[in-house]
């Protein structure tokens, strides 16, 4: 219905335009091309081609009421072309309601109107040439002026304008309307004073500056209506062209020129005011947001100054952190917020003169915050992390400075305390390391000193047992055997201590040779085999058919196997099972020793490779051991570039895995 109403309006005003044009002329008055273009701007349907076809038909019919059919067809085609050109440029060929907000959009609107005027002028000139109707140049100028006036004065009603309200109060607006509706008829009722027509233009400019957009356009439209009505009836400065011997069509050209002038004054002023009001609203909103942020930042001191460092802004955060009120600081320099010692200390740190201004300039030049001591009103000095920045206008002129800072005194104290604690801890760790080294040295020294006499004891017990010093009865032999067994156990413990000490101190010399890991595993199992024969245990050994070459110390690696398999035998109850396997995975050899023994609690497994550690289950069942074997085994494995892991659960057995890097083929 909206489109139908617009096209119907175009038809009605088109007939009035043709009938209102001078009878002796050849033009068609101010044909309402703006109403013909409006359906393309405000509605998506019907299709563009249908709208243009309807515009053509309406133009033919309305022009035919006062002009020959061939002329009507030609001028209707020119008007249709003008409609399409204007819509195509103004909306970029999109069926959507265009906006008229900015200077760029205004320029597009004026360009579209001018291009449409050129198009209709070309069509009118061609029609005049073909039909012989009127003078081509004058007819082209008349239709171009008519189309330009119609588009500029009427089309803004169908565009999206800024909905800013008028700044003028109601009384002022009433005065405006009274003047427009009074002065305009007077101007166009007088025939002898052409210059008086310019009295209307200041009134329209007044409305554009003080009223809302649509009200300013309404006053423009009122002037347009009064001017057309009175000029058509032969009144006003544009209706007396015959006095000067001019063609009757010049009347319409002059009237259209006046309307174009009015539109080009009202519309740019109206848009400029709307844009300024919108910018002012945005600036006010941004100012309010900034003020809310500044006044809401109670934990940050924000201080603004002019170019001479006199305070112009002192937010609540600054009041809280520094003890001054905004009234106390406004107009005073920020020099009073820093002690002489703080200025001197910062000047030395920055390498500038011991002067407040020099320090401030150096801080401005810095990227990021810096620490600075501030002096509170109560005399307490606090450390702040602060940033100082210049405030400049759009031309780069200095307007002042803004400082933001937060109190970091407690944080610095906490950092200092943490550093002191860290240093104390470092010294404690160093002391513990020294104590540990002394302990290891003591253990190594004592072990060396004990090894010789214990070896001697073992030698003499063997001689006593063999009867070198005479025959012994059964009780004496049993006592000698017990002494020998405990001495051997003690000697083994000493050997373990010495081995572990040398491994940890890199004092143990490894003899690296190319060995076959299969043979090392087999040899280690063979050492443990005699112990296995006295137990009700089953042991399987699964070795690959192909050699597994490895560069390492044969004796040390064999000791790892003996420790792992020996532990499996020791901690597996009668009737249990032990599985020893060796496989290759990727570029590693994997040795696994699994048993069905007593297992190890999960919470104790991370301590398993610690010296002298023995699991709670082993202690409960009184299974002997020194707690050194696994720590020695892992140390040897790691010295060979490998790793050792364990998987165990109480009552479910234990699996140790040793991973060693094998030699690449070739």
List key phrases describing it.
666 residues; alpha+beta; Beta-Lactamase; 5-stranded antiparallel sheet; 14 strands; 58% helix; 13% strand; elongated
Walk me through the structure.
- The protein folds into 5 domains: 1-161; 164-296, no CATH class; 297-407, PAS domain (Beta-Lactamase, 2-Layer Sandwich); 414-504, Helix Hairpins, CATH 1.10.287; 513-661, 2-Layer Sandwich (Heat Shock Protein 90).
- It has 20 helices and 14 strands.
- It has helices at residues 2-20, 33-42, 48-64, 69-90, 103-131, 136-154, 170-189, 200-210, 213-232, 249-296, 316-322, 326-329, 340-350, 356-365, 409-466, 474-504, 517-533, 554-570, 616-620, 629-639, and strands spanning 99-100, 160-161, 301-306, 311-314, 370-375, 381-392, 398-407, 513-516, 538-542, 549-552, 577-585, 588-595, 643-649, 653-661.
- The protein has a 5-stranded antiparallel beta sheet with strand order 4-3-7-6-5, with helices on both faces. It has a 5-stranded mixed beta sheet with strand order 9-11-12-14-13, with helices on one face.
- A hairpin with a 3-residue loop joins strand 13 (643-649) and strand 14.
- Helix 8 packs antiparallel against helix 9.
